[in-house]
Amino acid sequence: MKRIYIREEYCMGCRLCEIHCLVQHSKSREIIKAYKGEYPKPQPRLIVEEKGYLSFALQCRHCEDAPCLEACITGAMYRDRETGAVLCDEDRCVGCWMCIMVCPFGVISRNLEGKKVASKCDLCMGEETPVCVRNCPNEAIVYEEKT
Amino acid sequence: MAKKTVPSEFIIERDDEKCITCQVCCRMCSNDVHTYDPELDEVNSDSTKCVGCHFCEMLCPTGAITVKRNPSEFKINANWTARVINDITKQAETGGVLLTGMGCDRPYPIYWDHILLNASQVTNPSIDPLREPMELRTYLGRKPDRIELESSDDGPGIKTQLGTQLKLETPILFSAMSYGSISLNACISLARAATEAGTLYNTGEGGLHRDLYKYGQNTIVQVASGRFGVHKEYLEAGAAIEIKIGQGAKPGIGGHLPGEKVSEEISQTRMIPEGTDALSPAPHHDIYSIEDLRQLIFALKEATRYRKPVGVKIAAVHNVAPIASGIVRAGADFVAIDGIRGGTGAAPTVIRDNVGIPIELAIAAVDSRLREEGIRNQASIIAGGGFRNSSDVIKAIALGADAVYIATAALVAMGCHVCQKCYTGKCNWGIATQDPYLTKRLNPEIGTRRLVNLLRAWSLEIKEMLGGMGINAIESLRGNREQLRGVGLTDTDLKLLGIKPAGEAW
Which domains does chain A have, with CATH numbers? Predict the structure, then answer.
């Protein structure tokens, strides 16, 4: 499957990926409105790790043997048959946070926007390229199929 | 008098309705202009620190930032301009030489803008480069006085032994920029772009990083007065060797890479201790005459078994034509001439802005002189110094240059906004810096792509202009000054440039 790959040597830590991710997962999908007019504030589905000059954007790796799938007690966490992406069915999610506990990358977070559900990268379903990749000014994250 | 400071050059306008306090600007500005106030949830900008590089403006996701020139003005005075007053103020504070980067920004005449190209009409057909082949391939190096042919059973052949030639797919090379003055990612971008586009880049005086040896076939290795990183493998790594005597931005001046920039990698590449200043003397201490230069040229040729062309780079100064003649007679295979608008990583402002002559006049003078002396074929001329676009390039070739060196244009292609603060080492674009936080901002894949695009675009435009003149090979334009006409130039300018005024027929 097509995955997001990190090239940390080019990540400058600007966090534009985070900003565009937040906007993509907001109600309005308009940047100024998402930041200034939506309460509770929408949250990004990725994290930017930083230590010294090393930084990189990290989002769900959509693991082949995803522990979150096994840990999910309601079956909310599922693998999309078409794309292979690991997604969370928010209607089924009860917010037990087992997925957060088992995620080896720490890329699932609590959604604080409304109903208590798990919040994670959905590869911007419906978009050709995830917005974090599309908006990275230095191509430090790429979306491609690697064999 | 109380401390007097220079007013900020730029002001930053922040549209608070658009600012979402995402703090991208705060994280990215290496000059610490933008700061976030968590108590007020506001981003503040200290314009006094702004250098006008526009990095924040480019990254701001909502377009909330505009960098403008500070409209604050002094009393109008043709003599005591703001620049003059500010320079004096700075020197009164520091007691030091004013430094700057990039090329001369003073409004001296730009002759390119007073030279017009010809085109075919009725009496000779123009050529459509999209339909017919158009040749930009350029060979640099010594050409024989005459060609002797011989015929054998295999057919005719060339009997004359030709010197090594540098083969370029387009008559544009990347000029010397050292690893140290620019980041390794910038060097990698230049090397890869030169390889992809079939041209050459120049190492500058900073040696050749071990990761760049693989691009050797598209590299000109430089030997400058500091002799940094010069050894046998280095000389053999490149396609040609260039002895740097001078640089257009600072003729007669040496170089100084501050110790802070001499990282482990640079120290290994330059072969100097880590953290020490890299000082390039103003002259080569073993070259005090053309005869001395000849010795170095032949020492380098000997060291590389006469397999590589050896050239000499000089700044365009008043006596450029006789000097170039001497260089050719000393055995150089190409002469690189750098005009007053040539750039630098650091130079005293007063030198950059006041020493040297424009490249246009230097090309014309050198080409004419070498022709008069009957030695024009013995060396190629590479002109550099402020080439901005394809028309500057084609005009230079028509004036008599064989090829053109570009560097500022290449940097701009990689992101540079010509803020002239290269010497601070804080380049936000990741070009003129060695700070690991900043160098990674230049992704060499993007840099390479943009440089190749630039060369491609200029080459296509050159083909269009050539076709319009009815010429199908750049060779046929070289030194063809009849294709040029001057507008708004004095008789003396026209005479020196060797071109007719616009309106005058053949």
Answer: 1-59+127-147 (3.30.70.20), 63-120 (3.30.70.20)
B424 at the A interface (CB within 8 A)?
Answer: no
| Cis before A137 (ω within 30) | no
Nearest-Cα residue of chain B relative to residue A140: B443
CATH architecture for residues B10-96: 2-Layer Sandwich (3.30)
Q: Is B441 on the interface with A (CB under 8 A)?
A: yes
Residue-wise pLDDT tens digits, B381-425: 999 999 999 999 999 999 999 999 999 999 999 999 999 999 999
Phi, psi of B200 (to 5 degrees): -125, 150
For residue A15, the chain B residue with the least C-alpha distance is B24
CB A36 within 8 A of CB A27: no
* pLDDT above 70: residue B2: no
A35 vs B: CB within 8 A: yes
- Predicted local confidence at residue A111, as pLDDT: 86
In CATH, the number for domain B138-142+162-501 is 3.20.20.70
All residues of chain B having their beta carbon less than 8 Å from the beta carbon of residue A9 are 440
Q: Residue B235: enclosing H or E segment and its boundaries?
A: helix B232-237
What's the mean pLDDT when you consider all of chain A? 93
- pLDDT recorded at residue A112: 78
Nearest alpha carbon to residue B303 among B233, B374, B351, B198:
B233
Q: What is the mean pLDDT of residues B114-119?
A: 98
Contact A12 B28 (CB under 8 A): yes
**Ranges of CATH 3.30.70.20 domains, chain B:** 10-96
Residue A32 in contact with partner chain B when CB distance is under 8 A: yes
In chain A, the residue whose alpha carbon lies closest to the alpha carbon of B15 is: A32
Put simply, the answer to whether B24 touches A16 (Cβ < 8 Å) is yes
Q: Which residues pair with B167 in a beta bridge?
A: B139
Search chain B and give the residue with CA nearest A34: B20
Tokens 């490149």 belong to B238
pLDDT at residue A147, rounded to an integer: 76
Task: Give the pLDDT of residue B3.
Answer: 65
- Tell me, rounded to whole angstroms, the distance of Cα B299 from its chain centroid: 27
Given this model, what pLDDT does residue A117 score? 84
- CATH 3.20.20.70 range(s) for chain B read 138-142+162-501
pLDDT in tens, B30-84: 999 999 999 999 999 999 999 999 999 999 999 999 999 999 989 999 999 999 9
* ipTM field: 0.94
Chain B CB contacts of A15 under 8 Å are: 22-24, 27
Residue B110 touches chain A, beta carbons under 8 Å: no
- As beta bridge partners, residue B14 has B65
Asked whether B189 and B201 are in contact (CB, 8 A), the reply is no
DSSP-assigned letter for residue A126: T
**B188/A141 Cα distance (integer angstroms):** 20
Q: Is the dihedral of CA B337, B343, B347, B349 positive or negative?
A: positive
Inter-chain contact A16–B443, Cβ cutoff 8 Å?
Answer: no
Distance from CA of B38 to the nearest CA of A (A): 15
pLDDT tens profile B350-366: 999 999 999 999 999 99
Task: Show residues of chain A in contact with B26, CB under 8 Å.
Answer: none
